[in-house]
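Minimal example, chain plus calcium ion.
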Amino acid sequence: MRILIVEDEVHLAEALAQILRKHHYSVDAVHDGQSGLDNALSGIYDLLLLDIMLPEMDGIQILRQLREQGVRTPVIMLTAKGDTDDKIAGLDYGADDYIAKPFVTGELLARIRAALRRKGDAVVPEDGLRFADLELNMSTLKLSCKGKELKLILKESELLELLISRRQAVTSKEQIIEKLWGFDSDAEHNNVEVYISFLRKKLTFLNAGARISTIRGVGYVLEAAE
Ligand code: CA
């Protein structure tokens, strides 16, 4: 699960990032509104923690633009204590939840889990992602197909999760790198090719009714086999 923090108080953003990493989330943090919007529009995040008062563009404007452009990523607004107008505006523009600063870590983690669960409810039946005859369980990392089952490593399962969630749209190597390794990583196209080839071998082993096709110069797409 990858979370984007948009918060201009750098210390708070860093502290938050550390807490979330300790709880096994992948985290990116940015400190102004424009970077927040640009990053969030990439669509690689599973959840956004969005401060309201930000330089360049405030959290409400970011949220509004995201929803207008069809980005449905769950958003938890970070509000100043007692600022009811901000909460109402946030919820009106499609925020999933809000939490007042300063907050208790346990409460924030619970709200994150709840928002991710709600997101999961909409698209992930019984904790599994499905495509053709494949079923991927992201908690156990098990990929099953027609009664056969094997375990994926984390990066393979994140890659397959991404390809399934793209719903047969082409996914570029850049998008895969951002999702699996994050914006600041040194990961290269080779890394993507390696994991694509691992995953293809496993699909072949399972005799799956789905395959990963290469669209030359563009990226990859998961397709149902004929
Ligand atoms: Ca702020």
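The radius of gyration is 19 Å. DSSP finds eight helices and eleven strands in the chain.
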